[in-house]
What does this fold into?
Amino acid sequence: MLSKTANYLARRLLNNNIIKEDSYDIYVYGFELLISFLFSTLLVIVSGIIFGKPLETLVFLVVFIFLRSYSGGYHAKKYSICTIVTLGIYAVVILLSSFINVNVVYYLLLGIVGFILLFLWAPIENPNKEITIKRKIIYKWISILLFVTFLVSGILFIQLYPQISNTVFFTLCADILLMLPDKFKKGDKRDVIL
It folds into this structure.
């Protein structure tokens, strides 16, 4: 279904002379990514509404999507697996944030570990999207800046909105943990990019 829709959209662009034949496959891939992203995001939003957690869901999406866009990490080989993993991570974050209240000590520990891992490894490339050394440096510093911004925001919300603070904390944990599977693939020898 996803592939058919992406092919249909790319074919429409091709038939209307908006794109050329040699870029057809790129547009199909782009449409597949876009549709998969929108579908996963919509499922998370609907889940948030059903479970009565719309604000926490919005916080999850903002933190998860923005940090992951620059830090990189695990990518599923199939779009269906990606959707399942995203929904699973969302469910775990919402459950943990509902039952465990974090404090400044947890945030400080996460800050130390997260900063070190982002500094050493970010960005972790998607095999389908290579990035230049210059962009790697930019993405590294953007991911660190986003991480620190979300971290500080989470700490500031501890007293006023503990549920939001918990959601920020566990979403940051998920983002950092998603870097690990890709980092430890057999034969992976990445250099530290400063």
About this structure: Residues 186-194 have pLDDT under 50 and may be disordered. The radius of gyration is 18 Å. Residues 51-183 form one domain.
